[in-house]
Amino acid sequence: MKLSTSTGDLLKYASSLGDAVRLFKDTPFRYLNLEQDTAPYFLCPSDQPWQRELEDWAKAAEDAGITYVFSHAPCLNAFSGDRTDYDVTVRAIRRSIESCGALSIPRIVVHTSFSPDFTARQFTEQNRRFYGDLLETAENHGVMLLTENMTDKNTFVPLATGQELREFVDAIDHPLLGACWDIAHANLSTRAKAHGQYRCITDVGDKLLGLHIADNFGDGAHHHSWPFAGIINFDEVMQALLDVGYQGYFNFEASYTLLHHENLPYRRQPWVHNGETVKRLLDPSLELKQKAVALLYDTGKYVLESYNCFEE
């Protein structure tokens, strides 16, 4: 397996997504997950802001010696409001799929949409319509859509376990829809924890085409920490990946190597002294953060080498 990480690692240190990509030049990572969910201009009626950014993302990858291998669509809920909200969400995600086509990114994660009023059956049927409105764009641009498991902390979400994720993908039954397993989400889910990471991953089986790798304490707070900064057992994860013959990237979604003060769910508060806000140590420096990202790479390499599956 090859290591990739997500643009969110360095986004807080840049003025744009493209500039964040450029900062990876001074880290060991050569493969990136382009997190398009951080791009608000996807919601603009005009295509121009998005197209300008798309050109910059291409140039940024060239400048940094980076290859985009994975992406994440805007995190929007198509069923949060009326038909207008649905249309805006579909347009925004179609743009992100088109971005992948233009940048030769083979796979993009698209979250399911949800209403608390849905039954499990309605969830599947409404998302069949939702993904159906995206898959034609995916076909036109040769991009695989991946749906991921979610947490069930606050509400019943029908995609918490590996079995539920597999059944959903099978129900949509389209060659360009696969699954991404988020191990951090699973560690926050009551039902997924009851099954365990090994069973969940093996239940997804050959539909598993992407990973979100992070760690947390399973206590309800969605930290995006690095391996060994939480309680997830990576022997369990690795054995499952080998047993299902996973061929994708070992993709980190672990931007909390050193916390920026704006990282959720807990924010480091600025301190006011003598009427002035003191920011000298509010955040780690960019140099420190890039060293932390380098250590994230070394940590991933250690995990993969321990199972004889590390690839440059």
What does this structure look like?
It contains ten helices and ten strands. It is α/β, with parallel strands linked by helices and 312 residues long. Helix 3 packs parallel to helix 4. The longest helix is centred in the middle third of the chain and has 22 residues. It is globular. The N and C termini lie close together (8 Å). The mean pLDDT is 94.
- The count of strands amounts to 10
**What is the strand content?**
5-15%
Catalogue the unreliable spans. Answer: none
The helix content is 40-55%
Written as H for each helix and E for each strand, in order along the chain, the element string is: EHEHEHEHEHEHHHEHEEEH
CATH fold node name = TIM Barrel
Main β-sheet, spatial strand arrangement: 7-6-5-4-3-2-1-8
Q: Any guess at the CATH architecture?
A: Alpha-Beta Barrel
The biggest sheet amounts to: 8 strands, parallel
Name of the CATH class: Alpha Beta
CATH superfamily: Divalent-metal-dependent TIM barrel enzymes
- Shape descriptor reads globular
Class inferred from helices and paired strands: alpha/beta
Look at the structure and give the mean pLDDT. 94
What is the CA–CA distance across the termini?
Answer: 8 Å
Tally of individual domains:
1
Count the helices. How many? 10
Rg, Cα atoms, Å: 19 Å
